[in-house]
C-alpha cells in the first residue's frame, strides 16, 4: 500500500540518524529555515507562559509571599509570557527552535548543571508545593533563553548544524536511502543555492548505477575526505544489492564506529525492500 509523505520529514529523519557530520550539515541547511509546525509554536507559548509566571513570582515575592497576593502576579506574568510566545512563534523557524531547545538540552557540563538544578527544583516542589515547581520549570526555561541570547550575541553567522543530534526526532526511524534520494531531488528544486549543492551528488548517483564499479572500490570510497564521494559511494553500494554485502560485511565487525554503523545500515537497507511512498512538495 502506498503512503504519502512530504520531503521535509524525510530529510529531518536522515539528518538525525546519519553518521556523516558533513553530510548532516548539508541536510540541515535544506530544512533549517522552514517554518515550524503548530506543536512547536504551542510549546513555545506554554514554556514562555511558565517563564513569565515564574518571574512574576519572584517580583511579587518582594512585596508579599501570600497566595492571595501572588496569584494575581502569576496570572499577569503568565499572560504576558504567552503573548510574547505567540508573537515569537509567528516567524519561528526550525533553526531558531532547535537552537532554543539546545540551550536547555542536557549536553556537556553546563547541561548537567542545568539538569541538576531542574531536578533540585522538582524535589523542592515535593517539599514546598506547586510554587516551587513553577519556579523551577519557569526559571529553567528562562536560563535557557539567556544562554541562547548570549550564544547569538557571540556570532553574526547562523549555525549550520547542531552539535548533538541525538535529542531530536529520536522517535522516528531512519528512512530508506531510496526515499532520501527522492526527497533530495524535490528539496534541491527549492532554490538555486540548494541546486548548487545537490545537483552534482545526485548526478553522480545516476551515473554510478550504469557503471560497473567494483564494490571494494566503493567501500574504500567511504573513507574519503570528500563528503560527496562518501555520499555517492553509499547510494551506489545500495544499488549493487547483494554484490555489495560481502564487501561491507568486514566493516560491521569490531567496535562500533560511524563507519561501522553506516555499513550495518547499508546492509539492512539492501535486504529491506522499501515501502512505496509518494513524496510531495
Helix content: 55-70%
Low-confidence stretches: none
- Distance between the terminal alpha carbons, to the nearest Å? 20 Å
Structural class, judged by helices and strands? mainly alpha
Large-scale geometry: elongated
- Main sheet makeup: 2 strands, parallel
Please state the CA-atom Rg, rounded to the nearest Å: 24 Å
Order of H and E elements: EHHHHHHHHHHHHHE
Q: Would you count the extended β strands for me? A: 2
Put simply, the count of helices is: 13
Strand content: under 5%
Average residue pLDDT: 80
Strand order of the largest sheet: 1-2
Give an account of the 3D structure.
The chain is mainly α and 281 residues long. The protein is 69% helix and 3% strand. The chain has helices at residues 7-17, 21-31, 38-61, 67-89, 94-102, 108-128, 130-154, 177-187, 192-208, 215-221, 227-240, 242-248, 258-271; strands spanning 3-6, 277-280. A two-stranded parallel sheet has the order 1-2. The longest helix is centred in the middle third of the chain and has 25 residues, at 130-154. It is elongated. The two termini are 20 Å apart.
Quick recap of the structure?
This protein is mainly α.
What are the SSEs and their pairings?
Blueprint: E1 3-6, H1 7-17, H2 21-31, H3 38-61, H4 67-89, H5 94-102, H6 108-128, H7 130-154, H8 177-187, H9 192-208, H10 215-221, H11 227-240, H12 242-248, H13 258-271, E2 277-280
Keywords, please?
elongated, mainly alpha, 13 helices, 281 residues, single chain
